[in-house]
Amino acid sequence: MKFVEELVVEEFLPTVRSMLAAELRDRGLTQRDVASVLGISQSAVSKYAHGEVTVTDEIAGDDRVREHVDELASGLADGSITSVQALVDLEVLIRELEAGGDVLARLHEAEEPALADHPSFRVHDPSSELRTAERVRSSLRRGLRIIENTSGFASLIPAVGSNLVACTPDATTIDDVAGVPGRIVDVKGRATIPADPAFGVSEHVASILLAARASGSDAGAALNVRYDPDLLAAMEDEGRESVEFDESGDLVANVGDAVSRAPGATVLYQTGGEGIEPITYVLGPDAESVAGDVRKLVSTGP
């Protein structure tokens, strides 16, 4: 009898540590630095570097594993991700890979063939509030890294600042929406993210997202950028449906009315008024998708 936790220790952990060690060395970290970041000995790093640790090809070849390793290595190397954040991110990934039919589940079934008779088998509950919240934060971090690495995004930041927010599947209040504390700001022509994402820190953009969802939108994330007719036209040319709303008065009711008129709209905008800056809100299924769509807009130009 073999538990999936044994596979995590015996196959997932050595594989991912080996991949992370290699990526960190490629980014200029010394063997001592890598040992400190990963919380392992320098002799262990040396073994990883010299291929003395067995790597499981099925895990190393998984697209999500490679993506997480690359993103975590970048963040750990430049200090934008802490070891604790990396640990949480990998814990969430492990739970996803343990789901029925996924890579750890397949490896587990190979060890325990009888498990194949249970197609809905899940070792851990993937719907717990903690794991749901961490999945949202992990997706949001990846979306924010896209924004940070998008040359020219700062030109889209309005005077009030931008925020990328994402919510849990059953979000009803601002506390169910994660965003950037203090918002994304333009510092010398570069989009700057002042703090790690947290829940309940965005009132305005979170309210827009919640109001849209309450009126039938299935969006899970939103990003506000400056309003510009050319930008709006470019998004419409990309096939996005847009709808205008009035930001004066009851914001929730106004957004709800707009979405009710255009249920498929993924671009909401208002053209401003006395004391109100015109803003465009881009909606999407998750933070990475929204950030990726805006990056494409920036790269192609209006």
UniProtKB/TrEMBL annotation:
SUPFAM superfamilies: AraD/HMP-PK domain-like, lambda repressor-like DNA-binding domains. It holds the Pfam family ThiN. Residues 20-48 form the HTH cro/C1-type domain. This is Thiamine-phosphate synthase family protein. The lineage of its organism: Archaea, Methanobacteriati, Methanobacteriota, Stenosarchaea group, Halobacteria.
